[in-house]
Amino acid sequence: MKNTQKFKSLVNKVLNRMSDFFKGFKEGNSVTKGSYFILGLGQLLRGQIFKGSVYLVTQIVFIYFMITSGVSNILGLRTLGTQMQERVWSEERGIFVVSKGDNSMLMLLFGVATIFIVIGFIITYVMSVHGSIQNEKLIISGKKPNNLKQDIQLYLNDKYHVTVLTLPVFLTFLFTIVPLVFMILIAFTNFDRNHQPPGNLFTWVGFENFSAVLWNDPLKSKTFVDLLIWTLVWAVLATVLNYIFGMILALMINKKGIKIKKFWRTIFVITIAVPQFVSLLLMSQLLADLGTLNVILREFGFIETFLPFLSDPNWAKATVIIVNLWVGVPYTMLITSGILMNIPTDLYESAKIDGANAWVQFWKITLPYMLFVTGPYLITQFIGNINNFNVIYLLTRGGPLSLEYFQAGKTDLLVTWLYKLTVNEQNYSFASTIGIFIFLISAFFSLIVFNKTAATQKEEDFQ
């Protein structure tokens, strides 16, 4: 309900701004109307010299940029290049020389950047016109527009949030949004090892990569579906088992009568002190077919043949889940221990008076309280396990390999498959397509499922 009201308020605000924008040109005086064509005119002629100069310079620089390179950058998005780099015979030098060709990757990058520059200029244009309209309203009401000193004080007080957030928002667009859009657009091209610019160009192929993933290419479709199922199974088991065993361990350590609790916590937290990649690489060596564990078991006569911890698909999947428990349970234990210590004791005392045993107390008091507090944490862990590159790649490298899959192994997650497609196969367009699917899955669980948790819907019950 609150989100709906906020959305309606935002829509109304945008509509009001649009109405003021068109009304300003229709009803404004000549100075205001001129500001629709010359940025900063409504500020320069009304005493706001600095602000008006900034707007005017922005317009001049934008027009110069669009004339010199902006228009060609946008037009280049249509084809992503037509002239390939090639070797031609130079009569003057008597040797073959490399002729300069188009670079599809740079053309795509510069085109995307230019589009964002255009969007930024449009926002600046609207701000300039809106400021001019507001200045005219102030003059009509007998007031003067703010001078530079007053604007500085305004942005250091009432609009201080704008001052603080401007740079982070700009850097977010520059280093996050622009590269993200660039990588998404790669999914709609044929950028692979056979189309490497500048030697070879890549071009738009529409939804060809998406159709190959979903139905058009049987091998790729089977790989995607099987790895998606395993990714979700892995994420659920890795999250739920870590949570359950971590909570059980915390309950056991915090139980009344247990002595030297700090010592037991320290013992289980030791695994956190060792870098995870070191532990995983060590475990991959210990559990190999000719690893230490198999050798010891055979030397003592417990087994006759090596146990395929990492070489058999089913064994390997079970192994990564168990090893992940060893690595991840201490984190859950620490989190749940802190929550257990903060559950009000009077809740348990009241339950005992009502005749509730320990099992009922756990299901009616402990577990609901734990799930309420750790709901967002569980979602975060689930998303993290969907993208848990380290445990899978360092322990099994996605193996064992299979001819049933396209450049993937039986324990590969979607994220490790994406890594192999990028690094080993240079199939950037297909890898980008897989990345989009991973993003959609993560976004679904992060946004939709989070809003369904008790932490957001029943917050008042735990005040």
List the helices and strands and how they pair.
Layout: H1 2-27, H2 30-34, H3 41-44, H4 49-76, E1 86-90, E2 95-99, H5 104-140, H6 148-156, H7 160-186, H8 208-216, H9 218-254, H10 261-273, H11 276-286, H12 292-299, H13 313-342, H14 345-353, H15 358-386, H16 389-396, H17 414-423, H18 428-452, H19 454-457
Antiparallel strand pairs: 1-2
List keywords for this structure.
463 residues, mainly alpha, MetI-like fold, two-stranded antiparallel sheet, 19 helices
Summarize the structure.
With 463 residues, this protein is mostly helical.
Describe the structure.
This protein is mainly α. The chain has two domains: 11-86 and 94-206, no CATH class; 216-462, MetI-like (MetI-like fold). It contains 19 helices and two strands. It has helices at residues 2-27, 30-34, 41-44, 49-76, 104-140, 148-156, 160-186, 208-216, 218-254, 261-273, 276-286, 292-299, 313-342, 345-353, 358-386, 389-396, 414-423, 428-452, 454-457, and strands spanning 86-90, 95-99. Strands 1-2 form a two-stranded antiparallel ribbon. Helix 1 packs across helix 5. The two termini are 21 Å apart.
